[in-house]
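Hey L., structure's done. Input below.
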Amino acid sequence: MAHMWKCSGLRWKPDGPVLVWDGGRRSALPWGKRVAFGVAEGSARRCVGARGHVCPVGAVVSGRSTGARCEECARLDRAHSVAADTMADDPRPYHVYLAWFGPGMVKVGITAVERGSARLLEQGAVCFSWLGSGPLMAARRTEELLRAALQVPDRIPYAEKRAVRAVLPETGEERAQEVRELHARAVVLGEWPESLTREPCQPVDHVGHFGLSQLQTAVGDVVELVPGGAVSGELVAAAGPDLHLAVDGRGVVVLDTRLMTGWELMPLPSEVSAFTVPVREFRREQDGLF
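Output:
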């Protein structure tokens, strides 16, 4: 019987993306690597638990869920989450940032200063700049200020991010333009919290880090993994949780690695080119009447 692996998710390191497996093993993902795995026949996707603890009932979860948690474990996970505003007493300093994912797609967010730019890599930010730093609640108030005063969202759907990665502006200066403009408008707002220190606009570009400079337009993305299904493709780019895989005979397909967690997976030989999981085809613009 083939040895089974359980994926814990994608992590970003200074030298690129890494898949992490239960038990601590890591698989580096350099460009050109063949990503090939199968889902065990007759298996079911199981809840990954919360806050480092296993799900007490081993609940079966939907193959389309990016969280891979049952309702109870999801509630426990949110109960200790800065993102869900349930940790107002966190004493760590926080950064407020502006992140750009494509034309017209800039969001505001916060991340612990000690995490550096990890949060931006995890979200697939093509370009970003720090806006300020200070206590958690001051960072939260600044985030709310930008949302109310400048209509800057704090979330952008991954589907929208994926749709533009292959058609980004060519130069870093072009990619940074919207961040620079919004940064200038944000730092002069009168309601800026006194305990939050403004930071200069210094855009950081991730196009090279993500491998997006020569990226082909994707033909679709994986909807879910299924028992007995197989994935095989050459890694050509990655951004956030997404792997862009060049699949034989199909083109580039996007795999959200959050769909891998909770499944029992087995390695496939590198020469195997099967791709037998559901894929949602991206809609194409029609060139003419016919």
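Confidence is low (pLDDT under 50) at residues 286-290. The first strand starts at residue 7 and ends at 13.

-- N.
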